[in-house]
UniProtKB/TrEMBL annotation:
Protein name: Pyruvate formate lyase activating enzyme
Keyword Transmembrane set for record: no
Residues in Radical SAM core domain copies: 14-260
Assigned keywords, A-Z: 4Fe-4S, Iron, Iron-sulfur, Lyase, Metal-binding, Oxidoreductase, Pyruvate, S-adenosyl-L-methionine
Pfam family, one: Radical_SAM
Gene3D superfamilies given in the database record: Aldolase class I
Cofactor requirements of the protein: [4Fe-4S] cluster
GO MF annotation list: 4 iron, 4 sulfur cluster binding; lyase activity; metal ion binding; oxidoreductase activity
Entry keyword Isomerase: no
Protein's organism: Thermophagus xiamenensis
């Protein structure tokens, strides 16, 4: 079985517990205006034009973004880091894009990793059929779930999809006691305001089982340069990055509601 990925990050320390190998799957059903991984949105391997300047001359060449990889090859790459995973109580994280866009490949990877004793995390929007989520949960130790913005109209405006399926799937995870951690991209003008924070707290407080914690991910514009070569527009082109200390009030607000909160991925 083959899958399509656009990166493998070794020694990741922000994608779940311990030292991890993070595999980025291609394909995403959302279109977040602030996306910093736009190369992960298309499910296909695409060619982009790269420019190099030597003196006053420009040279162009085509470069693929992404690659098709066999499950067995990917397993071997993951296994090459197993010693670091074991020593740090780490493991593998499947991210994206949205890993559920390649549901069958994801399931195959989760199953194989778990059978080899590797701790598994799925970093997901949970914008996926509930039955896919529950099937994957059989082989997943922890879900990292993006909760972008609570207002449905704003969610639709800034991500291209309604948040109803996401909220429903979060309730299902919670009701079944499946471990998950919430990740909130903190975006100026979208999710970085008191009303959204209060709405998040209200929603999470009503869940039968609380998340393992909340990660606040400050907006950063380090992905800006990726849009133009992909022929994509960046709606947040002129938005300045947030400093982590700007999130302290939001963190305190959530902590006083009883959640363990961390700033950063
Ligand atoms: S869910 Fe992630 S990868 Fe998909 S568009 Fe949003 S930020 Fe980009």
């Amino acid at each position: 079985m083959n899958g399509t990925i656009f990166d493998i990050k070794k020694f990741a320390v922000h994608d779940g517990p311990g030292i991890r190998t993070t595999v980025f799957f291609k394909g995403c059903p959302l279109r977040c205006a602030w996306c910093h991984n736009p190369e992960g949105i298309s499910p296909e391997v695409v060619q982009v034009v790269k420019t190099h300047k030597v003196g006053c001359r420009s040279f162009y060449h085509l470069e693929p973004v992404g690659r098709i990889i066999a499950a067995e090859t990917l397993i071997q790459e993951i296994l090459s880091d197993k010693v670091f995973m074991e020593e740090s109580d780490g493991g593998v994280t499947f991210s994206g894009g949205e890993p559920f866009m390649q549901y069958r490949f994801l399931l195959e990877m989760l199953r194989r990793c778990r059978n080899m004793g590797i701790h598994t995390v799925v970093d997901t929007t949970v914008y996926t059929p509930t039955e896919y989520l529950l099937k994957a949960a059989e082989w997943t130790n922890l879900f990292l779930v993006d909760l972008k913005v609570m207002d449905e109209a704003l969610h639709l405006k800034y991500t291209g999809v309604s948040n109803q399926k996401i909220l429903h799937n979060l309730k299902v995870l919670s009701k079944r006691g499946i471990p998950f951690r919430i990740r909130i991209p903190v975006i100026p003008g979208v999710s970085f305001n008191r009303a959204n924070t209060e709405a998040v707290i209200r929603f999470l407080k009503h869940l039968p089982v609380s998340p393992h914690g909340i990660d606040l991910l400050p907006y950063h514009n380090t992905g800006n340069h990726k849009f133009q070569p992909l022929g994509m527009k960046n709606a947040f082109q002129n938005m300045a990055s947030l400093n982590t200390d700007e999130l302290e009030d939001m963190k305190r607000q959530m902590e006083s509601a009883g959640f363990e909160v961390h700033i950063g991925g």
